[in-house]
Amino acid sequence: MLVVEDEFIIGLDLAETVSDLGYKVDGPHSGNKGAFRAIGEHMPDFAILDIFTDDGEVYPLADALTAAGVPIVFHSGHVPPAEVRERYPNAQAASKPCPPSELIDMIRKAIGTTH
């Protein structure tokens, strides 16, 4: 599982939430460069992506993940979920701050599990 979030504390919180679900977490990465290196080594089962990162918008990374069939949950405080779903109709999208239980539900929906 890949986490890209430029706010370190939020990234750690996201990583901990996902780790508590039993997933190995790669990140949090603060930008696209580190995340692209990570997916070059191992494609994640799914990704949680902030839209605005330290080195620009996450869309190039999201496009690469989408092309590889990786489920994505966008987690942004600046882009409304409806706008994200227009560009990535198969992705989940949450506005910051997102309660952990809601994020967990989105992750499960994104990866197709209900438990």
Automatic annotation (TrEMBL):
SUPFAM superfamilies for this protein: CheY-like
An individual GO BP term: phosphorelay signal transduction system
Every Response regulatory domain range: 1-111
Keyword Phosphoprotein: yes
Modification type 4-aspartylphosphate: residues: D50
Keywords: Phosphoprotein
InterPro entries associated with the record: CheY-like_superfamily (IPR011006), Sig_transdc_resp-reg_receiver (IPR001789)
Gene3D superfamilies membership: 3.40.50.2300
Protein name listed in UniProt: Response regulator
